[in-house]
Design a protein that fits this description.
Length: about 230
């Protein structure tokens, strides 16, 4: 009776040996991917993506900084109020003089804080952007006193013309006028007048680099310098 004995021993071995103890043998090294190689490839991809992203950010920041360097903040000194209409001549706190081009905003702003972009020809006042054209750059020159400006010479007739547009409000040092002949003058002498004139006639006298504007309807002549 050998057969029953062999069957009993086989059943005992089958129940005793755990399946976890039987380790399958791999047929070759290529059956499973190498995790170290996979991780290394993914790491290189992430580094390349990060580098590309940083390069794009750097280019964008450089472009933004370049644009920002072309603009700066300033204040409109004259006229007051600032209207923002075509042909209006205005002066900024850095001494530069500008002309509004092709705009009709009727802003009535008194000494507004603005952003000027010379390379773009733009003036930003609040939420509005105006087209402007430069007439003269910033200047640190100080106006000479009236007594010294008129000494050592005599007044000669420079031109007879008219002031451009409607002249209203307070006329004082720093006010800028443009004549129909195309000349632009800035008041440098002490004066304080309240005027309301429409394209008044003006006689312009010259003594060296100093000009005197005798304007019809004004209480007194204006000592000025020529800006163009």
């Amino acid at each position: 009776m050998v057969a029953p004995r062999i069957q009993a021993d086989a059943l005992w071995v089958a129940h005793t040996v755990s399946p976890m103890q039987v380790k399958p043998q791999r047929s070759g090294k290529d059956d499973m991917p190498d995790k170290r190689t996979t991780n290394l490839g993914e790491g290189k991809t992430m580094v390349l993506r990060t580098t590309k992203f940083l390069m794009l950010v750097s280019i964008a920041l450089a472009s933004t900084l370049a644009s920002a360097q072309n603009c700066y903040q300033s204040t409109v000194l004259s006229p007051s109020p600032f209207m923002g209409n075509n042909g209006e001549i205005f002066k900024l706190s850095d001494g530069s003089v500008w002309e509004v081009k092709y705009e009709y905003e009727y802003m009535y702003e008194y000494s507004p804080s603005v952003i000027i972009c010379p390379s773009r020809g733009k003036l930003i006042v609040g939420k509005k952007s105006l087209n402007v054209q430069s007439i003269s750059g910033s200047s640190k020159r100080q106006s000479a006193p009236l007594s010294s400006a008129t000494a050592g010479g005599k007044w000669e007739v420079f031109e007879e013309t008219s002031l451009q547009g409607s002249i209203s409000g307070t006329v004082q040092m720093g006010r800028i006028f443009k004549t129909t002949s195309g000349n632009i003058y800035e008041v440098t002498g002490l004066t304080l007048q309240l005027v309301l004139e429409l394209q008044p006639d003006v006689l312009v006298l010259r003594n060296g680099d100093t000009y005197k504007l005798v304007v019809k309807g004004f209480d007194e002549p204006l000592i000025c310098r020529k800006l163009n």
